[in-house]
Amino acid sequence: MAESAVEAWTLSRRGLLAAAATTLIAACGRNDEGNSGPSGPGARELVVGASLELTGVGRALGVLQERALKITADKLNESGVQVGNLRRSLRLVIRDNASEPRLAAQHATELATRENVHALVGGCLAETSLAIIPIAQQQQVPFISYAAADNLTVPLAQRTYIFKLTPDARDVARALAALIRSQGLEKVGLLAAAGAHGDSGVRALTAALRAVDVDLVRVTRLPEEENADFRPAARKVTGPDPEAVVVWGTAPFSGTAARALRQTGFEGRIFFDAGAVAEDTLSEANAAAVEGAYVVHPGSLGSSALTNTTTAGLDRRDFIYRYIHLHGSFSGFAPYASDSLRLVVNAARLGKSVDRGRLRAYLGTQITEGIAGAYSFAPIRHGGMEPDSLGVFTVVSGSWSRVS
Fold it and tell me: Each residue's pLDDT tens digit in the chain (404 positions)?
């Protein structure tokens, strides 16, 4: 598709979403300072609860989100959050779900009922997010997920309080398929994570490769345990002698899978989906295996984010500088948490209320440029970053470098 056609499609799509959003805003009714959250001294707060994978298999992603949440909360609290006639402070209540769905569900219940949070965020793994969703829906508290899976926000009738920020699997798969085709590769294997994230990748990449006449020669699932031996899966996927292997998973599994591929003698090209982007993937143990690998990820991963002078670009630059100052290096996955807080704050400002129902309504109408990328939420669409926010990156000397 020509670049002008892509731009026209994107503008048209956003226009339709904007029209749907305007309709819902008009239906939101009067200015309401109602608050289904805390009363008394805490009534001047906007309280956001987070269930994160600070330990367990998801820690490579969860720790990044905790850092980003704290950085962004500190930034927003420098001037406070204007909600109607009140200037509120933003308060975080963070829990470690240890990468366990059962514990994530327990956190969601406690945060919604005992802490009376106005919104929930978190769930870096699809399984922890899926455990939070029914609680958030039942308690009617908005939940913004950081996980990547197609079934987080659908069916929409049963997910009215649920939103997600990560790119849709089909958009990542189409970008990967186009990249693979452009390199003249004809036979590809797929190593997919166990669970909902891997399921989404299998479906999306199968369709995307078929559309560009690339043969998906074998699909193999990765082990569920972090300390498992990944070499049997690597040997199986490379049995038909593919020219490339796509690893569809999250850190730390992505880097481990790449290392296993090289250990079994595979010399072809390696491609990752966006879930691979974390410090662990580029660790010393994985460095040789991932050198030259490709990933499709939101453009926030690239250094060009530092030269953008739009409002979103300046916010992005400030966030990256603060992150590096505190933690020494920047991870492209971190901005999702920052965007989630900014989306909640924008919803409170627009709705002039911290009432959970109004927050949900105004979250569902935001068309905005975030730090990670662009979002177009509407009553008919609660998830997925805009596809034009995605870029292609490759590992050069242990760092991600933008290709396109």
Answer: 334 443 443 444 454 444 444 444 444 444 444 444 444 445 699 999 999 999 999 999 999 999 999 999 999 999 999 999 999 999 999 999 999 999 999 999 999 999 999 999 999 999 999 999 999 999 999 999 999 998 999 999 999 999 999 999 999 999 999 999 999 999 999 999 999 999 999 999 999 999 999 999 999 999 999 899 999 999 999 999 999 999 999 999 999 999 999 999 999 999 999 999 988 999 999 999 999 999 999 988 875 555 566 777 788 889 989 989 999 887 777 899 999 999 999 999 999 999 999 999 999 999 999 999 999 999 899 987 899 999 999 999 999 999 97
Pseudo-torsion of CA 132, 376, 339, 359, nearest 10°? -60
Q: Is the sign of the CA dihedral 84, 86, 90, 95 positive or negative?
A: negative
Q: Are residues 135 and 208 in the same domain?
A: no
Note whether 128 and 104 are within 8 A (CB).
yes
Instruction: Examine the domain organization and report whether 292 and 322 are in the same domain.
Output: no
CATH classification at residue 284: 3.40.50.2300
CA–CA separation, 385 and 139 (whole Å)? 26
The domain total for the chain is 2
Tell me if 21 is assigned to some domain: no
The amino acid sitting at 157 is A
293 and 222 in a common domain: yes
- Answer yes or no: pTM beyond 0.85: yes
For residues 33 and 154, state if they share a domain. Answer: yes
